[in-house]
Amino acid sequence: MFKKAPLVVILFLILILGLSSCNSLPTCGPGNLPMPNLLSPDWGGVFAIGTDNLSWKFPYTTCEPEGYIIELSDEPNFVNTTLNATLSSPDTEINPGPNLQPATKYYWQVSSYVGATVGPASISRYFYTEPVCGYGALAAPDLIFPVDGSVVTTLNPEFDWSYPDPSCFPNGYYFRVSEDPGMGTFAIESDNPDNWSDDIFFGYPLNDCTTYYYQVTPYVNGVAGPVSEINKFVINTTGNCECDPAVLPVPVPLTPSPYGAGDRVIVPVHMQVGWENPGPCTPEGYEIELDSDFYYSDSPYNGQISGGEITTYSPPTLEPATQYWWHVYSSYQGALSTTSTYATFFTEPECTSSFELTAPVILYPAHGAFVNTATPMFKTVVEPQGCVPHTFLIELDIVPSFQNPILELQAGFTTTVIGPTDPLENCKTHYVRAAAVQDGTIGPYSAPHRFFVNDQGSCFPSPIGKANQNVFCNIGPDWDMGIHLFKKDDWIQAVNRNSDTTYLEVFVPDETGKKPADPQITCWIPVGAFTPDETIDLSELIINYPPEPPEEPKPPGDESPGGGGLVCHSSLPAEQCKLAGGSVLGFPYPPCVCPP
User: Fold this and answer.
1) For residue range 167-188, what is the model confidence (pLDDT) as tens digits?
2) How do the residues of the chain divide into helix, strand and coil, expressed in percent and rounded to 5?
């Protein structure tokens, strides 16, 4: 038999059960409030505006704060906030509303408070608002830091980059650092296909006195997009790194300031070039090449510097109104680095008026040259008494009259070297002339040069024709003996003409009969023995003056003026070679061997 419980006991049990079903906790004391733990969105996560919420968790389970302060900003220091809200406990989730900007990186943090006491802010996180880029629209990230070629003075650098399209962002990335410029092996590697970032810090120490390379690849839904360029940097924390002869620092030209399109770097003839050593080590010295020929022949202006701390060089006095090119290597234990970038400048004086313009001189192609490319470069210089104009005009034609040039080349900046973008017609003779231009006024033209385009040796040079009879080719029209026999239907390449176009200067061919001998040798034939293979006016050839024959030896006892005897030399025809005391070997040219 059960006894009935008293009414007081029943009411007490009901009260206990009611309290146990309530989730509220007592309020924490204001001292030692902890940092809240952020939950969502995750680091670099994607956030849907108006739909997704910010959520966090208070780390204590025995008490709770009165509320929370939520800060959201597009700046990591939260100086200007997009959201600064207060939320009462026990709520730990908030929707920032519809006013966030699309494709934007936002930072957020949460602090708890009790009364007037505000606890420490949580560790801040960042997220990106939609939209995510489509895979086909992905672009390569732009690397920001370390800058390409820079020296970093810490073993733990922070890496920064940016995404170039402001309308969307990737939702993942692949980052790597390597000592290999080909990025074959990695010192640091971070593959994050599910969240995007534009910076990273590992706290993983890299090696001092070492050159590194880094690169970033964006992802969309785990699929890789186009990779960034590779930036190089060096770690040098002490400034006392030892050089490796196999991997020497490549100098960076500084002065005169590196030449770019639109620039006109004009310096005195007494000048100095300067460069920077990018590290990580200091070489033993430097070697400098400086020349007015951008092919860098054996220039008297080249120099060497002993002492890696010296990064300037003063060449001998330069020529006035001349364009020079220069570059520099670092040297260590007999080894040279790879070359620096190439730099160029002009020497004074600079033209101030079109009245100062003089006719330039074409250096190459040389007159009568054969070029083995359809896109040759043209190099001009001004006369020693000239000045540096605003630019140069190059005209090309297939006839020397230049009445209707087939091509005009004029750079938008000052340079003495320029070439065509589109190939010239192959197997064709071309003519080129140049003029300086100042304030839009074209100065006097240079003497024209003729050259023949024989791209990769694929055609007979021009102007060409055939011998219409057997003909000896003489050293000059008035010489008696020839140095080469052209047989009927042999190919002949004309070079020049005499003043009345009765004789042609032609090349002696090599053993193939299809191109000039090397070294080139010319001789003269009558115009009537030459039948051009193409329509050409031989009177348009450049005039050259044939050599006069040597004097005949005087009879014994003849002391009349004009004598002197025949001097032996290798170009003499056979009979004159014998008279001069030489011996005849016959063809090919030269037939005459002179006594020592």
Assistant:
1) 999 999 999 999 988 899 999 9
2) 5, 35, 55
